[in-house]
Amino acid sequence: MKYKYKKKQNFKIWLIIAVLTLLLTSIKIINKPNNTVKQQTKSINKQKTVALNKPEHTIKPQNKVTIQQKDISVAQFYDPLNWSTHSTQIKEALKTSEAIEIKSMREALKSDNRNADFSGAVYKVKLSNGLEAVFKTTDSGNMAKDRMEEAAYDLSAATGIAFVPPTVHRELTADFNKTGHTQTKTGFLSLFVETQTDLISLSKTRFDELLERSGKERVANFKIFNFVFGNWDVGPHNMLISEYKRGNNIDYFPISIDNEGIANIQKVRYGAIPFVKFFGTNSSNPKTEFPFDEAKLSDTAAKQEVSKELNFYPPGRTHNYIVWSGCYWAQFFDSYWDSPSDITDLLYADYLPPKTKIALKNLSKEQLFKIFDKTEQTASEHLKEIVIGILERRDMLLAKF
């Protein structure tokens, strides 16, 4: 009996030990950290630390944010620095506003004791939104010439080169003749630029001094714009110098106006006055190179000879000429200060600003046709030659610098 008791007692003890062991194991399993969760937690904490220490500009946003440019007031339209960045807004205002006052530009200039050196019907207009503008009527609505003022502005705005007053081509209804009856005419409407100085009245020395106040880069861009885009008829009669007050300072800008010369097909050697195709329609692939060295002075005898050969009487302005591929090409070298260099001084810069160089390199045939509101397929042969000429002159300039 005694042996049996001990055996039974030992069995109970071992049973208690086994149950306790099983309970302790279960408790450890329940409280034991999950290794996978622990690793994920460490990874997340590590990412947070890296993100906090990572430079802000390298963190990519989850969603793209488009920053819209704020509109500017009508008064700020007159700041040339806004003409490129707010082109759409300014053109829309010029296109949609009605004329509430209109008078002859000759009358307006003479009342301000200024010279009126221009041709055609030109008017100074006050629009319903308060803007002052210049309206010049056109006859045909032909893009090759009549809409070239708007194209010139678009070229300056798209490239950021030079300053051309914001311009649109549109119909304008007004009492043009002061008769009490309104008429609707087609032409281009440009923002009126107030200036303090009548450039035509200045000597060459005084003109150069005033131009240089615009600064090296703006002066260079003004000349580059004239040459590359073909605004060959340059001088104090076709430009302004705007004196825009900015705080306590005056900001000077050379302004290119009367840019219809861009519509002319041209041939040029870099540094010289361009030859402008004045008459005739040559083939698109002439068999010979342009004969620059065969230029002749257009005197009375030469004009009579040309009139018989081409049934066309040459223009009266002082010029050299070349008859080539059935066309008359004129090199005009008369100027306000009686020196050919007066013209080349406004066509050729001695400096190419880095931003301008990039803009010119990026200029493509497709972009130019788009600015002229055409495609290469829909453009006339005349416009195609204009675009080719722009790119050729661009390449000449880039080769120079």
Spatial order of the strands forming the largest sheet: 1-2-3-5-4
* Strand proportion: 15-25%
Number of distinct beta strands: 12
Provide the structure class: alpha+beta
- Strand count, sense and closure of the main sheet? 5 strands, antiparallel
Query: Radius of gyration in whole Å, from Cα?
Result: 37 Å
First-to-last CA distance: 121 Å
How large is the count of helical segments?
A: 13
**Globular, elongated, flat, extended or rod-shaped: what is the shape?**
globular
Mean pLDDT: 83
* N-to-C series of helices and strands: HHHHEHEEHEEHHEEEEEHEEHHHH
Low-confidence stretches: 1-8, 27-67
Question: Could you characterize the architecture of this molecule?
Answer:
- The protein is α+β, with helices and mostly antiparallel strands and 401 residues long.
- It contains 13 helices and twelve strands.
- It has a five-stranded antiparallel β-sheet with strand order 1-2-3-5-4. A five-stranded antiparallel β-sheet has the order 8-9-12-11-10, with helices on one face.
- The protein is globular.
- The model is unreliable at 1-8 and 27-67 (pLDDT under 50).
